[in-house]
């Protein structure tokens, strides 16, 4: 009798021991899986995309359209690279007094913030899901970095500075997206620091895109003979040289250091997304020109990739 009780007791503790071992092994497997997912999802680079005119959404004659349609395969790494967990777009078409991020639950509305264009453009939809969790994270990071007031907009969808390039870059519209506004009452250094605050998002698999235009003077006379306005060419060349040389302080103070700065950007809304992309890339980030073309001789579609120094 005593032997049978002893055997049952031993069996009981052996089973408990095996159960504990099983749980520890399972937990270790889950942890390793999550670590692999985080490594796979990590995004090492940021981008500044010149989205030019709204007609980019329909005009196949624009070289920039072909570039953006091939972006996933030729620039981002193709099917072998996992997609980002979500996308944060800093668009030149959203100006606020203080940083504001949209936190849409459900599908983002497609905002048609342009006028007098072909009717077919007003029928385009980019029904991507919103990213309210990313919006919360953006607010946390900015607040922790000293941005005292950060607002959240739960209704605003995506303006054309976001949905036009994204519909070409990620046409499946299945990656959660949120936008962050620019503050045209501040300067380049302010927006560079905003990007620095957001840099940890890359470790979480977030793709950060600044969307604007390398030159953006819509009142300048358009050229139809294939030439480029001298002021636009000189500014665009200065910008390329400064970025490729890593002279980011010059970029932060472009108003004083760039030729024809006021002609190239009468208003800084489409340039500040560049500062955010540079800041988010990390210290001593390396710039790479990934596309260059012109429209109407004044609108540069120069686009850049920024990768943190190893």
């Amino acid at each position: 009798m005593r032997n049978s009780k002893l055997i049952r007791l031993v069996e009981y503790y052996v089973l408990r021991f095996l159960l504990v071992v099983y749980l520890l092994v399972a937990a270790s497997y889950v942890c390793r899986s999550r670590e692999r997912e985080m490594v796979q999802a990590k995004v090492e680079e940021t981008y500044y995309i010149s989205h030019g005119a709204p007609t980019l959404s329909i005009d196949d004659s624009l070289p920039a359209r072909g570039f953006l349609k091939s972006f996933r395969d030729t620039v981002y790494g193709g099917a072998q690279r996992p997609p980002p967990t979500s996308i944060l777009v800093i668009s030149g078409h959203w100006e606020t007094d203080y940083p504001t991020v949209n936190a849409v639950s459900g599908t983002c509305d497609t905002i048609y913030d342009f006028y007098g264009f072909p009717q077919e453009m007003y029928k385009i939809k980019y029904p991507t899901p919103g990213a309210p969790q990313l919006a919360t994270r953006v607010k946390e990071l900015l607040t922790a970095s000293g941005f005292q007031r950060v607002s959240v907009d739960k209704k605003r969808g995506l303006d054309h500075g976001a949905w036009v390039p994204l519909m070409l870059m990620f046409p499946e519209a299945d990656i959660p997206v949120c936008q962050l506004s620019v503050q045209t009452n501040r300067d380049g250094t302010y927006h560079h620091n905003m990007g620095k605050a957001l840099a940890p998002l890359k470790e979480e698999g977030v793709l950060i895109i600044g969307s604007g235009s390398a030159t953006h003077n819509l009142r300048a006379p358009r050229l139809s003979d294939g030439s480029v306005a001298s002021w636009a060419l000189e500014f665009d060349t200065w910008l390329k040289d400064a970025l490729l040389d890593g002279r980011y302080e010059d970029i932060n103070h472009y108003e004083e250091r760039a030729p024809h700065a006021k002609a190239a950007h009468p208003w800084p809304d489409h340039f500040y997304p560049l500062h955010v992309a540079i800041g988010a890339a990390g210290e001593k980030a390396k710039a790479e020109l990934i596309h260059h073309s012109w429209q109407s001789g004044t609108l540069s579609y120069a686009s850049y990739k920024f990768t943190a120094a190893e």
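The longest strand covers residues 86-95. The CA atoms of residues 39 and 118 lie 44 Å apart.
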